[in-house]
Amino acid sequence: MEVTILFKIGAVGILVSVLCQILKHSQREELAFLTSLAGLLVVLFWVLPYIYELFQTIEDLFSL
User: Fold this and answer.
1) Would you place residue 56 in the very low, low, confident or very high pLDDT band (cuts 50, 70, 90)?
2) CA distance 50 to 29
3) Average pLDDT in the 15-27 region?
4) How much is the average pLDDT of 45-63?
5) Could you tell me the pLDDT band of residue 63, with boundaries at 50, 70 and 90?
6) Do the beta carbons of residue 19 and residue 57 sit within 8 Å?
7) This protein's superkingdom (predicted)?
8) d(CA 14, CA 45)
9) Helices (H), strands (E): how many in the chain?
């Protein structure tokens, strides 16, 4: 696993957190929820290939 993906996930987390706080203080809770959902989806799409690779490795390990 690359280290840069961890920094990207951390950066998205910080950015989403700040945006959500700004939107909540401006009485836009719906947009804050959508922002956090969008951040979650972006990170999920980044991590999904690594999860697939993990399951492939486990499958190869047990299919001797």
Assistant:
1) very high
2) 32
3) 96
4) 94
5) confident
6) no
7) Bacteria
8) 18
9) 2, 0
